[in-house]
Amino acid sequence: MNTITQASRRERLATIERSLASRHRREKRFRRLGLAAVVTGMVLVLILFASILMRGLPAFWQASFHLDIHFDPEIVDVSERPSREAGESEADFRERDLIWLSEVGRVNWQQLIDNALEEALGEEIEPRQARDLRALVTSAERRILRDRFIEDQSMLGETHTIKLLASANVDVWLKGNIDRDLPDSQQQLSAQTREWADRLYAEGVITNAFSTALFLNTDSRSSPASAGLAGAFMGSLFMMLIVMVLSVPIGVASAIYLEEFAPKNRLTDLIEININNLAAVPSIVFGLLGAAIFIGYLRLPLSAPLVGGLVLTLMTLPTIIIATRASLRSIPNSIRQAALGIGASRVQTVFHHVLPLALPGILTGSILGVAQALGETAPLLLIGMNAFVSNIPSSPIDQASALPVQIYLWQGNELRNFFEARTSAAIIVLLALMLSLNALAIWLRKKFETRW
Amino acid sequence: MNNLALMAGVLVVMALAYQLGLTRSKAVVGDGQRLHSRPGYYGLLVALWCGLPALLLLLLWGVFGSDIVQFLVVQQLPAETAAFSDREMVLQMRRIGALAAGNNINDPQQFELAAAAQQARLETIGRLTVLASMAVAAVLGLVVSRRQITPHMRARNHIERVIMVALALSSGVAILTTIGIVLSMIGEAVNFFRFISPADFFFGTTWNPRFSTSGDTGQGEFGLLPLLWGTLMVSSIALLVAIPLGLMTAIYMAEYAPPSLRNVAKPVIEVLAGIPTIVYGFFALIVIGPFLSGLGEVVGISIRTTSALTAGLVMGIMIIPFVSSLSDDIITQVPKALRDGALGLGATKSETIRQVVLPAALPGIVGAFLLAASRAIGETMIVVLAAGNNPVLHANPFEAVSTITVTIVNQLTGDMDFASPQSLVAFALGLTLFVITLGLNVIALLIVRRYRQQYE
């Protein structure tokens, strides 16, 4: 009897031992599979960041001319700027000044640039080459000359070195973003312009200088090289302010109500399910809501950060409510009981004791919600924020764009060679903003995290 | 801007009222008496009685004021304008409004000048009336409530009631949002179904919305099926990428990874979930698309740069963090006793995971997958940039497709005249999208909730 069980036991052990090797192999395989999944995810993300950084970083530097501009009195032939005379009304003076400004605007500033280029190239430019010459400097730059002159009229007759942006095509050519061996017919620039650009670059007249235009200018259609993010940034800033001012107080208030005061009944159950569902509704649906209600019904202005802010507020509200509730729930009941025990009312308990303790969690959730709203694109397209706006918005009801929408607009620009880098640069700016918000949230959570 | 200044003024007055209430409450309390509440509550009560009615009046004027003025001005217009259509009337009122604001318009008519003068006068009168009634309400509220302060008055209870009402109203905003979504979608979708029958929409196999500006008298065809098919194709590819990778990541993070790795990787994953979708879209367009198309050339299949595959692949990458963090939460919720039991019987770790932990966590994980699916279906920017916008029924993932979300963007951007089926269709599509995602979410949340209860 004993020997039989002994034998069967040994047999069983042998079976187990035989299978053990393959089981351990399988264990190892499974583990490696898991690690491979983690690594794959990380590698994909690395590729994403690397490809965007590689494309975008060069766009922060832009081909720029340093030209000796001679403010030739023969070309800048304008009368003296009017000064206010005694007894003249403010309106009359402003009108005379406007007339003078338009006179300045009519000056052929391009001629100054052309002359300076001719000087820098050291050769006589024939009239038939005028087009080749004008392809060098981007078209909006003559306005810089005008503005400099309006600022300081003593420049008349003098020569100043002024930094002017090269045209987008020159930038692309010098950075090698277009195949240099393509035949003439497929090149954006004429052979003459390319030769000039190379020569001026070698001579140091053109350098690759840090692009302030990217940060200080608004979008530009006629002069792509000077297109910048300032307008979109202000639009996003206005929207974020609206989101913060509206969604944080409303979200926190409703979370407090639901978590601390609401009676458990059908209605509060419904609100709870409703909030969880709203958090998972696609963002584009909120855009449709904005188009139908804010624009179609309430007749709020199209493309305004006000409407964008309202739509994003509704979108972030569930996120903030859920985060706040989780944060309130993590406060142990003993705190509440202690406060109630020494005679605080329920409202006092919540506002004097529970809320301050839950604040770090609420802050973290709110920052994450706002960061998410900052990157949202789809709903903004439906309320007209993809319109071309050439002014920096000065109030939330002005027309504006937003950073992610600007990215969308630039990636669709026909001047692919130039805007691929510009778009990546805009993405870097957006990601930097979002990542710093996220980092702030994580830091706050780490700093104030309490373990009960 | 004027209203903002007024509001600031009211706030200043409220601060003053607070001080008055505070001093009053301290003054009324006699020797040996005690106030019911702390003095601050009395101050707050006076401030609220002083400021809230005034702010309410301002709000009412802001909402209804211009309508009342417009109505009165319209009454005064000469008889011939009664025959104007709505559109002409709007233009007419805009001209008068511009005149009243002091701007010049071309060729102003005599009656327009008169109406503008009247509008300006009415606006001034209305403003002054509101201002006066606000002042009266503020002073009255201040005086009356200040007089009512006695040591026995339950100021704190009054304040707390106001706070409760404010809190409850805030939580109503979420309900209002849902109602707003449903009503606006249904309302505009019904308008759309006046042009196109629901059967043609839901079962049509051709998508060809001719734009009315082309002079074409036909309405175009609005068949949903090609778009729905495209949506399903892209989302399925995304889930095929995201589910294995996300689930394996979650398992590794929950069961194998040392705490040091977990502490680094968890926040990284959280941050990834926050990258805007437009960035993923751009990545798909300039990196993944050309790469896949090049790969296809090597293998000998033609893959378009913008295709269902490109969009699906990148969308899958986007959802990995979503799937992994949800599954991670669910796997860590499986009680330790189950694991210990299996390990104690001699199972290896992977056997425990596959045969004990995963089956126990299955309902929750399925819920997570459903949430991921709903997110994939509603995703917009990646498909707008990388799916190619080709609304045709075909089964080739290497070809371009179009989805519901892409079409909503295409049909509605830039056109805010909700009168043609071409723009109204966006709402019918939105409603379809909303119903699909809502269904998935409700089922998923129910499953996850039941799963949580099981182990609590």
From TrEMBL, chain A:
Location of this chain's protein in the cell: Cell inner membrane; Cell membrane
Signal peptide: none
Pfam families in the record: BPD_transp_1, DUF3333
Record's keyword terms, sorted: Cell membrane, Membrane, Transmembrane, Transmembrane helix, Transport
PANTHER family, sorted: PHOSPHATE TRANSPORT SYSTEM PERMEASE PROTEIN PSTA, PHOSPHATE TRANSPORT SYSTEM PERMEASE PROTEIN PSTA-RELATED
Similarity comment: Belongs to the binding-protein-dependent transport system permease family. CysTW subfamily.
The name this protein goes by in its record: Phosphate transport system permease protein PstA
UniProtKB/TrEMBL annotation, chain B:
Alphabetized UniProt keyword annotations: Cell inner membrane, Cell membrane, Membrane, Phosphate transport, Transmembrane, Transmembrane helix, Transport
Gene3D superfamilies reported in the protein's UniProt record: MetI-like (1.10.3720.10)
Cellular compartments annotated: Cell inner membrane; Cell membrane
Domain ABC transmembrane type-1 residue range list: 228-444
Pfam families: BPD_transp_1, DUF3708
Membrane protein topology class: Multi-pass membrane protein
PROSITE patterns the UniProt entry points to: ABC_TM1 (PS50928)
Transmembrane segments: 6-22, 42-64, 125-144, 165-186, 227-247, 268-292, 298-323, 356-377, 424-448
Main location: membrane
UniProt family annotation: Belongs to the binding-protein-dependent transport system permease family. CysTW subfamily.
NCBIfam families to which the protein is assigned, alphabetical: phosphate_pstC (TIGR02138)
Function field: Part of the binding-protein-dependent transport system for phosphate; probably responsible for the translocation of the substrate across the membrane.
Name the record gives this protein: Phosphate transport system permease protein
Gene name for this UniProt entry: pstC
